[in-house]
Specification:
CATH class: Alpha Beta
Number of strands: 7
Bound molecules: NADP nicotinamide-adenine-dinucleotide phosphate
Distance between the termini: 56 Å
Radius of gyration: 18 Å
Shape: globular
Strand order of the largest sheet: 3-2-1-4-5-6-7
CATH topology: Rossmann fold
Structural class: alpha/beta
Largest sheet: 7 strands, parallel
Length: 278
């Protein structure tokens, strides 16, 4: 079926996993969608599926851990038209990656997206980066927080608080806290272009990544967190798409440099409730 490809209203979705596809389906109708992922096979399948559903979509391979790769994607978005929204969902988790990979993809990758899309931002552009409720469990020294928020991107991985050979689970907590802080610290620069950026921090979400974590070494602990939470269920990718759509749209125009925790109450229960009956 033929499609009308406009030259305006571009939406960029990075990551074609569970959340990326749900976000793309929520935001892409009537816009020009640039869909990006590092796996050419996964990307090709996602582009075909969304095209078949009527979306005007083009695929771009990107490795978010590589600055020049993200810059190429941002340049393509800027050339395609006015960039309305960028939703960054690509990432790796402790069960599937080493600490080094987590820092390179989750921490550095998000910093690359924040940097590279700034020149393509214009009044009304909204960037949403997916962090994690894991970032809410971090309790880091002030100098580590300052480094994560404000260090030049090329120095981001070089700090005594970042152990590239350490525990993946700890790396994930630091990296996701880093996402929240980096976005917070960049809000003024993005505001200079009339643009906004925020993070969404999901709880346990039923995506391929969420399923792998539930089957991994920390699975019983994660399941217990879900049972203790206010919602008493895992989240869906659509729950995250709803939050991303809110932050990408005009109803959140006074919200920037912030984090939206979408966790079914898991973090609050960890703090204030100790047993399922409490
Ligand atoms: N699911 C959860 O329970 C949960 C909870 C909290 C936070 N999060 C965060 O939410 C985000 C999305 O997670 P998800 O559940 O949608 O995961 P997912 O289904 O595994 O999707 C992640 C996508 O990112 C891609 N990717 C990985 N490394 C990349 C790189 N260097 N460059 C470009 N693309 C890359 C993956 O490709 P491949 O599959 O080919 O590797 C995959 O398509 C992640 O940042 C994750 O940390 C998830």
């Amino acid at each position: 079926m033929s499609q009308r490809i406009g030259t305006h209203d571009v939406v960029v979705v990075i990551g074609t996993g569970g959340m990326g596809l749900a976000v793309a389906r929520r935001l892409a109708a009537g816009r020009r969608l640039l869909l990006a992922d590092w796996s050419a096979d996964g990307l090709g399948a996602a582009v075909s599926a969304l095209r078949g559903e009527g979306h005007a979509v083009e695929g771009h391979t990107v490795d978010v851990s590589q600055r020049d790769s993200v810059e190429k994607l941002a340049a393509a978005a800027g050339a395609a038209g006015r960039v309305d929204a960028v939703i960054h969902t690509a990432g790796v988790s402790p069960v599937m990656a080493t600490a080094r990979q987590i820092y390179e993809v989750d921490l550095l990758g998000t910093a690359h997206v924040v940097d590279a899309f700034l020149p393509a931002a214009s009044p009304g552009t909204s960037l949403v980066c997916v962090a994690s409720m894991a970032g809410h469990f971090a309790s880091l020294p002030a100098d580590v927080e300052r480094h994560l928020a404000t260090a030049p991107t090329e120095e981001l991985l070089h700090h005594k608080g970042i152990d590239l050979d350490g525990e993946p689970a700890l790396a994930y907590v630091v990296a996701k806290r880093g996402n929240q802080l980096r976005v917070q610290a960049a809000a003024r620069a993005w505001g200079g272009r009339g643009a906004r950026l925020n993070t969404v921090s999901p709880g346990v979400i039923s995506t391929p990544m969420g399923a792998q974590e539930l089957q991994g070494a920390a699975g019983a602990h994660i399941q217990a967190m879900v049972e203790l939470s206010g919602a008493r269920r895992v989240g869906t990718a659509d729950d995250i798409a709803s939050a991303a759509a809110f932050l990408a749209g005009p109803e959140s125009s006074f919200i920037t440099g912030n984090d939206l925790l979408v966790d079914g109450g898991a973090v609050s229960a960890q703090r204030w409730n100790t047993t399922p009956s409490a």
